[in-house]
Amino acid sequence: MKFAFLPSPWEASVADLQAAGHEMVDLEQNPDMLVFRGGPKDFPDTLPESVKVVQIGYAGIEMLLDAGILAKHAARGVRFANAAGIYDDTVAESTLGLLLAVSHRHKAVRREWNQSQLFDETEFLFDNKKLALIGAGGIGKKLIEFLAPFGVEVTAVNRSGREVKGAVQTVAMSDAEAMAQVWANNEYFVLLAPLTPDTKHLVNAEVLAAMPSNAVIVNVGRGGLIDTEALTDALRHGTIAGAGLDVTEPEPLPADHPLWDMDTVVITPHTANIPRFMERRVGALAVKNWEKFASGEQMHTEVDVDAGY
Amino acid sequence: MKFAFLPSPWEASVADLQAAGHEMVDLEQNPDMLVFRGGPKDFPDTLPESVKVVQIGYAGIEMLLDAGILAKHAARGVRFANAAGIYDDTVAESTLGLLLAVSHRHKAVRREWNQSQLFDETEFLFDNKKLALIGAGGIGKKLIEFLAPFGVEVTAVNRSGREVKGAVQTVAMSDAEAMAQVWANNEYFVLLAPLTPDTKHLVNAEVLAAMPSNAVIVNVGRGGLIDTEALTDALRHGTIAGAGLDVTEPEPLPADHPLWDMDTVVITPHTANIPRFMERRVGALAVKNWEKFASGEQMHTEVDVDAGY
């Protein structure tokens, strides 16, 4: 098949598509597939009728959905696939790094040799800890694998409440009573959920107050899952013990924001996933998705445009 | 049995011994066992003849050996056990925390949003990495378990060259030719070896020069395993990529030492193991060791005083 790659191609991805026998062309040359890795403004206003599939080079498609781009072309029969799953391992490993950096109090280390402070404050994952995974898709499942040797007891929270392998229990996010137990009975909270009207400020002042005082939150999902002001207050007053934040609201977090100054908070600049890994993998995913499409099946990472994911 | 606990008891350990039916007494009241957690100066000059076993509350017994204390009492038939193994999980987890903090460039994060720097410089353990474990006892075996889900290829280095489970190969430290391959062919080096005349400054300028430029060293063994000046030079000149140091030479590292200023170096103040975990566990170990002794067997962590470990 022929594919176009907009707004500009990733070399590693193109190489994988070409190695599978596909040909890169311009959008005007009637491609079968568009591989797209830009934002809403980069998306072509019109697509040639030849384009049957759009492979998006990332997973968080909220902005394309909000801009009405997917709906518009889906109405014409174009099918969309995103890049969910190809960064499960990067994000899961980054999550573990944040969990350990916060628990082991790396940021509290002082040149003046505060060993006894760290002796008191260091916590270990292997020490009969309980962790709630808020959003338990592919990244969560990979994190469960990484956590298994530590014996961490994982509670999964997802939309459906459908059982997640490796979790001791799975809770549906809509079950308010069960969710109250989740907030109260875990020490670690890993936020991986997509941002929707239902999950906006999921972690607010009330939820923070319900957590135990040794709670640590790691957000590798979306900044808007947490009410930043409430989190800052909770950390300042010792309501909870720490946070690892790869995403924040606002993002970037202003350089003078008090969260930067807290040694209980480890921040990374939205780098839990890394573009060069995506570039290495999107080509292979596009090849597999095209095979599925060509054989009349649902693609591996096909987007349900109506459902919004 | 009756036990004494010197120089002063750890509550949690005493509770475990008492729960197993043993009685705490003073040294003068003819205990069967002495639980000892001090340094050479704290060791009693003479032990009552009733003392058959000394359970030491830590693993690194070099100082007691060097002071001749073990030999003196062993000559009289006293048997010694150390606390090897009861902090395998703390040190292994701390090691993983340092590996991830260095690889994920936590210390390079700037408030001024240096996302693209981290995109370029972040490395992942799962990304087909090779790691050499220098010293592959209990901690190393636990670390191999923690690393297994990442698919890290582990080469073990020990005294004997005897195969270590989970390692793709095991090299004897005395095999100079094989060791040259170890330094050249791994990206991660975890130092867990005891400090002996053979291992003093094992990582020196020559060894650092042999490592690949993306090499990361984590030292959770003894500070003297590394020539600090050579390491500082290697990091300053990019000969290697980073280091995680729980132990240093000298220790504490002076507050004005250049290693503190490098964002490629993550330092913890000798807190890979944590006393409160030892306190929780030494009692249970002493109980198990006494059972072995009482049934005429070798104790779980019996020290070979002649061999020195």
TrEMBL record, chains A, B:
<dbReference type="GO" id="GO:0016616">
    <property type="term" value="F:oxidoreductase activity, acting on the CH-OH group of donors, NAD or NADP as acceptor"/>
</dbReference>
<dbReference type="InterPro" id="IPR006140">
    <property type="entry name" value="D-isomer_DH_NAD-bd"/>
</dbReference>
<dbReference type="GO" id="GO:0051287">
    <property type="term" value="F:NAD binding"/>
</dbReference>
<dbReference type="InterPro" id="IPR036291">
    <property type="entry name" value="NAD(P)-bd_dom_sf"/>
</dbReference>
<keyword id="KW-0560">Oxidoreductase</keyword>
<dbReference type="InterPro" id="IPR029753">
    <property type="entry name" value="D-isomer_DH_CS"/>
</dbReference>
<dbReference type="Pfam" id="PF02826">
    <property type="entry name" value="2-Hacid_dh_C"/>
</dbReference>
<feature type="domain" description="D-isomer specific 2-hydroxyacid dehydrogenase NAD-binding">
    <location>
        <begin position="97"/>
        <end position="272"/>
    </location>
</feature>
<protein>
    <recommendedName>
        <fullName>D-isomer specific 2-hydroxyacid dehydrogenase NAD-binding domain-containing protein</fullName>
    </recommendedName>
</protein>
<keyword id="KW-0520">NAD</keyword>
